[in-house]
Amino acid sequence: MQPSLKAVAFICVALTGCVNDSQSDDSSLRENAAVSAETPSSPVQIVAAGDTLGDADVDHPSSKAADRVLLEPAKWPDDVRASGRHPTSLHLRVRWSNVGTWDDTTLLHPTHAEVMAGAVIVQDVGRMTLVGMRREDGATLWRRGGRGSGPGELQLGEISRTSDTSVLYYDASNRRLTEWSDDGALLHSRSLPRAGVLRGLCRLSNGELRAFTFPSGTTRALGLARISPDADSLVDLKPVSLGRPVHRTALDAQMKLYPLNDGSCALGAQDESWLAVFSNVDTLASLPLVEIVPPPIVIDSKEGRATRTSYAAGQPFGVQAVAQLGSYVAVAFGGRSSVRRRLVDFYQRDPWRYEGSIVLPGTVRGLSARDSTLVIVSEDTSGFPRIDNFAVSVFTQPCCKK
User: Fold this and answer.
1) Which DSSP category does 219 fall into?
2) Is the omega angle on the peptide bond into residue 351 within 30 degrees of 0, that is, cis?
3) Number of alpha helices (DSSP H) and beta strands (DSSP E) in the chain
4) Distance between CA 96 and CA 36 in Å, rounded?
5) Which of 40, 334, 387, 391 is least enclosed by beta carbons within 10 angstroms?
């Protein structure tokens, strides 16, 4: 299935739908108040694994206007506002969208993307590849990886931003950690310690590479550990307590570590209502979120001689993804409303306070941001995955009404 790339016009996400001339109050977001021009269409070209395209060969978005990407606030279900949410005052303009179709093979199943200085790096688990896309228009620049266990090949895992120009790929199946540049170069590869399951990687400003380790098999570690470049095991484990009993499988203790752009990290509980932002593991403290969800309920049921462990029906979800956008933190949240897992909430970083929200048509899979660019990977209403690249602006005055 081949995504159709579309350039679209300005979207004002506040209670209006208009353009405002007022100045931004955030220097990292100010430059994006202009409306992008439409780009001429060109035939789509498939990039072979390991190839890099020249400027004359890249895919470009079509000039067709895309469907409105965000659910208009006037169409929000009542239970969204009842949860304490209101539309964000941030202004989002769609630079480009990549939406899957049956005819496309460029991206089979993208699950996450990281915004880098030179490209947007997309993780495509359908092919087990990393795909570099141009930030400005979504053109495909390069593809690396491919399913396998050989040098440069990938199995199931996840990517995590480690600098402005590189990402780490945590390969759970191959027990391998690889670092890739935003121009597609393989910079480093090493084996990983066999210690539980790693849920998110984050490099702190002091150079420490931290991971959240989740119990698996005989390894029962639940906490933040350091990955040493010369050690065969995780070191400096700092246990993380949820302040309540945890099921023997730790299914109700799902957490993940997210890197932020200023060299700090965020730890999010996927079934709870808090976020911990820290630059040192000794200063870990939780921050409140706009919606409170109850702790998860885990049920054991007998199936013959086996015991099946699962969530109770209708279990709400908490933090699903986190990204830093200038002086704001974006949090994809599950919640209990009828748009559960389609919400992105924005918080002012300092002092911490809820700013507003947006609602996507489908489930949010991943978030990433750099400077004034926000990239959201979600599920389209057609059922195919989609990637949306937004330019974000902050205005000090309310947006005008038509």
Assistant:
1) B
2) yes
3) 1, 28
4) 10
5) 40
- Are 157 and 138 contacting, i.e. CB atoms less than 8 angstroms apart? no
Looking at residue 20, what is its pLDDT?
37
Q: Tell whether 199 is covered by a domain.
A: yes
Confidence of residue 26 (pLDDT cuts 50, 70, 90): low
Strand partners, 94: 390
Residue 402 located in a structural domain: no
DSSP secondary structure letters along 99-166? E--TT--S-S-EEEEEE-SS-EEEEETTTTEEEEE-TTT--EEEEEE-BSSSTT-B-SEEEEE-SSSE
Judged by phi (left if over 0) then psi (alpha if -120 to 50, else beta), residue 180 lies in beta
| Tens of pLDDT, residues 216-244 | 766 677 889 998 877 677 888 898 888 88
φ and ψ at residue 251, rounded to 5 degrees: -60, -30
Strand, coil or helix: 351: coil
The β-bridge partners of 202 are 210
* Any domain includes 400: no
C-alpha gyration radius of the chain: 21
Q: Give the Cβ contact number of residue 172 at 10 Å.
A: 15
> Would residue 401 count as lying in a domain?
no
* Strand partners for 82: none
Number of domains, the chain: 1
Enumerate long-range contacts of 340-347, CB under 8 Å, 24 or more apart: 340/316, 341/317, 342/71, 342/378, 343/80, 343/85, 344/376, 345/85, 345/289, 345/290, 346/88, 346/90, 347/287, 347/289
Whether the pLDDT of residue 356 is over 90: the answer is: yes
Tell me the pTM: 0.81
CB atoms within 10 A of CB 187: 13
pLDDT in tens, 157-168: 999 999 999 999
- Cα separation, 260 vs 263, whole angstroms: 6
pLDDT digit string, tens, across residues 299-354: 999 888 888 999 888 888 899 999 999 999 999 999 999 998 999 999 999 999 99
Residue 35: is it exposed, middle or buried by C-beta count within 10 angstroms (0-12/13-18/19+)?
exposed
CA distance 32 to 93: 8
The domain that holds 99 is classified in CATH as: 2.120.10.30
Separation of CA 105 from chain center = 22
Question: Which residue range(s) make up the domain with 236?
Answer: 4-393
Closest CA to 272 of 249, 248, 291: 291
